[in-house]
Specification:
alpha+beta; five-stranded antiparallel beta sheet; about 45% helix; 14 helices; Helix Hairpins; 4 domains; Beta-Lactamase; 17 strands
């Protein structure tokens, strides 16, 4: 025992001999300095009920031989000073072969390591981590945290703002690859951020997470984290687009008004000489017909000269008729321009026959189709059917669709079949349905959901504003109708559905 006592008392490790009831049998100098206790003190009075229960269970297992020793962290609340944290190593003292079993007093050997500094550091770290996590969770800037793991960047964490931005679509994607979540290009930027260990902003606007427009800042965080901060510009871009649309519509309306004024001016200047041309043409036709019908020309004994005269008279009569028809066509076109160039947004909803709508629209484009040899097929189920609408606006929509079809079929140089454009009008219950179909190459599936967006155009630079379809859709919506692309048709086919009677019509 002398050797044991020497080792016990001289050990730099705080060591206690404790009875099963918690009474201190003895403690060495290191333990006394650590705890400030003396022998005969009861260790249980310095422990919480939970720790006492934990120790008692461990004592029982050691006594039963289920375990040889036990290690646990404890907090000791002493009467003097702050509570201390210790790592306790507990084992039981058993009689040796030379010790009589009956006289042996059972006790536990408890060795204590002061871990207060470590525990307080851990608590501060935990506190700071929890505070940071709370700040991160409530950060108003949408943020994703990616971690380099097993050769890939995986989603490690995200805040509430990021969940809101993505409409909770990535709520269950922790551990998923960056490529899967933000795409290949952004994953490359994440890799670059980690490699160079720097923070940078990619000022390029991009569309992610169900068409949200964002700008991303990449931030390196040691040792192997990259944070993605998202600036959501969706609403800003939407407002800017709306303003631009309104500006463009105003400019468009101004141009159309100028066109209307110009058409009126041209019509005024042309109508008088056009009337004169028509009058002279009619007079010439009457005179030539009279001469042709005269007995002197119709005599059966006509010589060769008189036969030639008759041929010339017939030719002149035909030419005069063509001049008259051309003059009438010019008058019709000018009339259509005067109507089309006028802003019809404030017009009342008035009855108009389908036939009139189609005829006035075709007067502005039929000659163009004819000049290029493109068949313009027109089918009207009930020409006399009346519809309540703003005539000028509906004509504008139809003319826009027909012009788009014209551009599509003339641009299709490699079309397998002859070009054609078809305009169909039919009645469907309480609606009028109008279909404009062409033989062009069609609209690629990847852009079909974008063709109605303002400023989106498939035409070359300078060949379109990208507003035609969006304005057309807005016009049809003001008419309480529907304007859509028929996805089931192998060709390009736009469908217009208009109620026969407008609900707010006078």
């Amino acid at each position: 025992m002398d050797h044991f006592e020497a080792a016990f008392f001289q050990s730099p490790l705080a060591t206690l001999l404790v009875r099963p009831n918690g009474e201190l049998l003895n403690l060495n100098g290191a333990a006394e300095r650590l705890l400030g206790l003396k022998a005969n003190a009861n260790l249980s009075s310095y422990l919480s009920p939970e720790e006492i229960q934990k120790c008692n269970k461990a004592f029982q297992k050691i006594e039963r031989g289920e375990i040889s020793n036990f290690r646990t962290e404890m907090q000791l609340t002493l009467k003097v000073g702050s509570p201390i944290f210790v790592m306790a190593f507990i084992s039981i003292a058993r009689p040796t072969n030379n010790s009589p079993q009956k006289s042996f007093q059972k006790f536990f050997i408890v060795q204590l390591e002061d871990i207060s500094i470590r525990k307080r550091s851990e608590e501060r770290l935990k506190f700071n981590e929890e505070r940071f996590r709370a700040q991160f969770r409530n950060l108003p800037i949408p943020t994703l945290v990616f971690k380099w793991t097993l050769g890939d960047f995986l989603l490690f964490d995200l805040n509430q703002a990021a969940l809101t931005l993505t409409n909770d679509r990535i709520a269950n994607q922790l551990g998923h690859s960056a490529v899967e979540i933000v795409g290949y290009d952004n994953a490359k930027n994440i890799q670059d951020c980690l490699n160079k260990k720097h923070t940078f902003c990619d000022n390029k606007k991009q569309t992610l997470f169900d068409n949200r427009v964002v700008v991303i800042t990449y931030s390196f965080t040691p040792p192997d984290y990259v944070l993605l901060h998202f600036e959501d510009l969706t609403e800003k871009v939407h407002i800017e687009n709306e303003l631009e649309v309104h500006r463009s519509k105003a400019l468009y309306s101004a141009k159309m008004a100028s066109l209307g004024e110009m058409a009126s001016s041209v019509a005024h200047e042309i109508n008088t000489p056009l009337t004169i041309i028509s009058g002279y043409s009619e007079q010439m036709i009457r005179q030539l017909k009279s001469i042709r019908d005269s007995n002197s020309i119709q005599n059966s004994n006509l010589n060769k000269t008189n036969n030639l005269t008759q041929i010339h008279i017939q030719s002149l009569e035909k030419s005069a008729t063509n001049v008259l028809l051309t003059a009438e066509k010019i008058a019709e076109i000018i009339k259509g321009l005067r109507s089309f160039g006028r802003d019809g947004s404030q017009d009342p909803f008035l009855p108009c026959t389908v036939e009139k709508l189609i005829t006035e629209t075709l007067s502005l484009c039929r000659e163009k189709f004819s000049a290029y040899g493109i068949p313009l097929q027109v089918s009207i189920q009930d020409p006399k059917m009346q519809i309540e609408c703003r005539t000028v606006q509906i004509e504008e929509v139809l003319l826009n669709l027909l012009n788009n079809s014209f551009d599509a079929v003339t641009a299709d140089q490699h079309g397998k079949n002859s070009p054609w454009v078809r305009l169909e009008v039919y009645t469907q219950e309480e609606n009028i349905e109008i279909a404009v179909t062409d033989s062009g190459p069609g609209i690629p599936p990847e852009i079909r959901n974008r063709i109605m967006e303002p400023f989106f155009s498939t035409k070359g630079e300078g060949k379109g504003t990208g507003l035609g379809l969006s304005i057309s859709k807005a016009i049809i919506q003001t008419h309480q109708g529907k304007f859509e692309l028929d996805d089931k048709c192998p060709n390009t086919k736009f469908l217009i559905r208009l109620p026969i009677r407008h609900k707010n019509a006078a």
